[in-house]
């Protein structure tokens, strides 16, 4: 499927640019160890924090559904990276393998519920079920990780179209961050009172079919105005 192939290609390019082309060996070009599964684990914890799960605190607060989408996309970046690291064939063959997963077929047919009809505790349990599989999957079988991700994303009401739109947005934002001093610590993440993620989502909402290059230019315009 072209959507999967596009995301795999963009992730490969981002990882090459950010970490150096030897990143599949488990180290950045600066020699720092890479652990994609740990990244997934921590992003999943941040995802759970988007729900009002704490029985001692603000129990009637609504879930932050916009951030839930962003956290899912962040997790997907790292799932893709683990897939790319362990897969021995072409991106096309990996895309085909992903599209053949049973949970991907369900994911493609999803019609998301309205937020009011969603069940936060059911969704949290889906995240925890995904996490329980994370370190159990065999090293060579990262497809099992993708299978679990699609199951979780379906329960959390994230459609394929929305995943793709936000993935493109976050991928370009990640590249923008790297180009503007993110690793060096000079990047400004809050833009006039809004986190850059929120600005990126606003641009996507206004221009649903914006190209990756045009999105990068729009982010540049906003950043230069700080």
Topology (elements, then pairings):
Blueprint: H1 2-19, H2 36-48, H3 65-86, H4 91-99, H5 102-108, H6 120-134, H7 143-155, H8 160-179, E1 190-191, E2 194-195, H9 196-206, H10 212-224
Antiparallel strand pairs: 1-2
Q: Helix amount, in percent? A: 55-70%
Q: What's the pLDDT, averaged over the residues?
A: 93
**Largest sheet, if any?**
2 strands, antiparallel
> From the 3D coordinates, which CATH architecture would you assign?
Orthogonal Bundle
Give start-end ranges of low-pLDDT stretches. none
| Number of DSSP strand runs | 2
SSE order, one letter for each helix or strand = HHHHHHHHEEHH
Placed side by side, the strands forming the largest sheet appear as 1-2
Beta-strand content estimate: under 5%
Radius of gyration: 18 Å
The CATH class label is: Mainly Alpha
Could you name the CATH homologous superfamily?
Type II deoxyuridine triphosphatase
Quaternary state of the chains: single chain
Which overall shape is indicated by the principal axes computed on the Cα atoms?
Answer: globular
At CATH level 3, the topology is all-alpha NTP pyrophosphatase fold
Number of helices: 10
Coarse structural class: mainly alpha
Report the span from N to C terminus.
Answer: 40 Å
Query: How many structural domains?
Result: 1
Any overview of this molecule?
The chain is an all-alpha fold and 226 residues long. It has one domain (2-161): Type II deoxyuridine triphosphatase (all-alpha NTP pyrophosphatase fold), CATH 1.10.4010.10. Helix content is 62%, strand content 2%. The protein has helices spanning 2-19, 36-48, 65-86, 91-99, 102-108, 120-134, 143-155, 160-179, 196-206, 212-224; strands at 190-191, 194-195. Strands 1-2 form a two-stranded antiparallel sheet. The mean pLDDT is 93.
């Amino acid at each position: 499927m072209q959507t999967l192939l596009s995301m795999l290609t963009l992730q490969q390019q981002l990882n090459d640019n950010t970490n150096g082309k030897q990143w599949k060996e488990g180290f950045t070009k600066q020699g720092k160890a890479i652990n994609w599964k740990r990244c997934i684990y921590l992003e999943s914890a941040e995802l759970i924090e988007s729900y009002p799960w704490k029985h001692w605190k603000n129990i009637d607060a609504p879930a932050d559904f916009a951030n839930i989408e962003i956290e899912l996309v962040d997790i997907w970046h790292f799932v893709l990276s683990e897939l790319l690291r362990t897969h021995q064939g072409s991106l096309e063959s990996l895309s085909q393998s992903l599209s053949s997963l049973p949970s991907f077929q369900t994911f493609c047919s999803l019609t998301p519920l309205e937020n009011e009809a969603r069940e936060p505790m059911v969704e949290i349990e889906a995240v925890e079920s995904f996490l329980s599989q994370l370190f159990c999957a065999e090293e060579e079988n990262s497809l099992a990780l993708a299978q679990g991700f699609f199951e979780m994303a379906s329960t959390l009401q994230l459609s394929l179209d929305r995943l793709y739109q936000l993935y493109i947005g976050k991928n370009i934002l990640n590249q923008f961050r790297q180009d503007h001093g993110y690793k060096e610590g000079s990047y400004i993440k809050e833009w006039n009172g809004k986190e850059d993620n929120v600005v990126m989502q606003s641009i996507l909402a206004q221009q649903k079919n914006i190209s990756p290059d045009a999105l990068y230019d729009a982010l540049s315009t906003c950043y230069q105005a700080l």
